[in-house]
Each structure stands twice: as C-alpha cells, then as structure tokens.
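Lab manual, section 2.4: Encoding a predicted structure.

Procedure: take the sequence of the chain (363 residues), apply the prediction step described in section 2.3, and record the output as structure tokens. A sample record is shown.
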Amino acid sequence: MELYGSEINVFTRNLLNFNDLAFSVEFADPNFLIDGQTQIKDNLELLNEIIFKPNLAGKEFDHISFETEKRNLISNLISIQDNQDLVSTLGLTKLIYQNNPDRQVPIFGSVDQLNNLTNEKLLEMYQDVIQNDTIVINVVGNVDEEKFAEDILTSGFYTQMNSERPDLKIEFDKFNQLIANPAEKIEHKHLNQSRIALAFATEGVSKKFNRLAPQIMNLILGGDDQSQLFQQVREKNSLAYSVSSTYQPLSHLVTIQAGLDSDSVQKALELISQQIDFIKNGKFSDNQVQHAQKVMLTRRKIATDSIQYYIMRSIWETVYPKTLMSDEQFQAELDNLDREHIASVANNLHAIAQYQLIGDSND
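Recorded output:
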C-alpha cells in the first residue's frame, strides 16, 4: 500500500535453449506522486527482498507454502489432459524435439518431477540459479539512467549479484534428420473431438529474401481469419471447428493445428496440403498480400503499447540481437515484399512432424 499498489510478477519461459526465471515490479511514475521521490529505490528494495530473502524456514522454504504450491501445481498439470489443444501441442513438440531431452519436458515440468521434488532440493536449486546464472536487468519507463545506476549500486542487489557469471551460449535445433524422415504419432482417446498438429521446417529459404516473407506467408496460409485455412477448411468445407497456423521466427517452424471430427481427418489433411500448394504456385491475390501487410503493421503497433514489449526487446538485444528490426527496417521490409519471396517460403516448407489425437467417442 505504501508503494501505491506496486505489481509484482514472477514467471518462467523458454528463450531459445534457456529457461528464463523472470522477476518484475511495475509501479507508478514518481513524477505523478506528491511524495513518491523514493519510489524507484523502494521498489528495488522490495524486489531485492523477494528474490534474495524468500520465505524460508531454516534450509527450506516455508513448509505450508511449499506444500500448497506443489499441490496446486500438480492439480494444474493433471488438468492439462482436459485441454486437448495443449495436449496436441505438447505431442507435436515431443516429436519435433525428440533428440533434445531438455525440450521433451515442457517449461512447467511433469507430475513425476513434482512428486520427486523435495522442499530442501528446491531451495538448493533456487540458490544455485540466483548465485550463478546470467542476469539481465531491464528498466522501462521515464527513468533517469544515472540516478537508477546509483540506486542499484547502493541497493542490496549489487552485493548479491556482483560475482562472475557465464555468458549466454546460444544453440539452435537442427531439423535435417526430420526433413529426411518425418515423425508421426497417432493417439486414440475417449473424446468427442479430434486434433491434428503439423510442423514444417522452412530451411532453404534464401538469406537474400525478405525477412518478413515467412510471417506474411503464414498470415495468408492460416494466421488470420481471412486466411486460406480458415476460409477453405473451416468456412467453405466445414471440415474443422478450428484451424490455424503459426510461424516461429527463432526456430523457422510453421505449425498448423486443427480441431475436427475423426472422420474428417484425412479430408482436412488433403485440403491443408492444397492450401500450401495454392501459395507455392503463387495463386494468392495482391489483396491477400496487402491484408497481411496491414495485419503485421497493426499487430506491431499494438504490441509496442505495452511494457512487456520493451522488456522482451531488451532481452533479445542481449541474447540474440539479429532477430530485432527497428521500426524503419520493419516498414522497409514490409514495403519491399515480393510475391516470389512469399511463394518461395511455401516451396521450402518441409513436413517434419505430424501428431494426431483421435477422439473415439463411441468406445
């Protein structure tokens, strides 16, 4: 209350081959407060207390807190089985990263891991991360940089963080083996609906080509409600309740997901393949390209209206700056988009994995 409702967040996420444990605090701009001149320093101390002085009872976390969180998390993990979209996504991910043990287990872990996790072991792992892993500090807002540097050097943070830490070593997954021998898995469950999840690698697209061409291709294919997949598979032929595609710039993967009846699976797969051919053969219209360009620009503008956008941008500047484009570069790439580049992305799609979750409602 004394900090005018500062908001604390703690979460984990994947960044390439890293797991990121993120702590953040959002608070009011001191310039808009009558007596908020120490807001930055006070919030730094709050964050310092949360990270470096957690709720401990000797050599472990507070027992009730640990057991409560463990029980809640196990309950959440068990409930994943009711979210068939997530089940199919995880099934596809296991196929894509079958040779990477670290990616076989999702960021939120498994029930078996949780059952085997002791309170003492968790604290030991946490302290190892806090004391030894790379730290990236992001500051977003109307902040005096020199004053902030002064505040952080005089805070509890500096003494805790002032130690040798390793540089981040980026590693990329290669999909050559899967391009040669695509992975497939079919699972049957007692469900009313079925799911299909497909993955394609876009290796082979020339480096001289437009950097936004894969995203534009994906929007025309299935990344929007005006896309080929949505219009042809769902609307025109009623073969799916839901269908969409996504493009992941870091892994250069295109994934397609559809929810449908089990007797529509083969027809839907054929129609999906036809939509990819439609783009390969350059049959898409100039209007589709222009619509995709507008969507890309609008999404970027919306994204920049959030603190999280600037935090992530700052992180990527540290981790992998090649992925970033300035607004001017982004607009230039958008303006210089070539139909040949869009078709080329589709022509360089290699099917690498297919996961089917078939609902057997009549069992």
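Check your result against the sample. Residues 60 and 120 are 5 Å apart (CA to CA).
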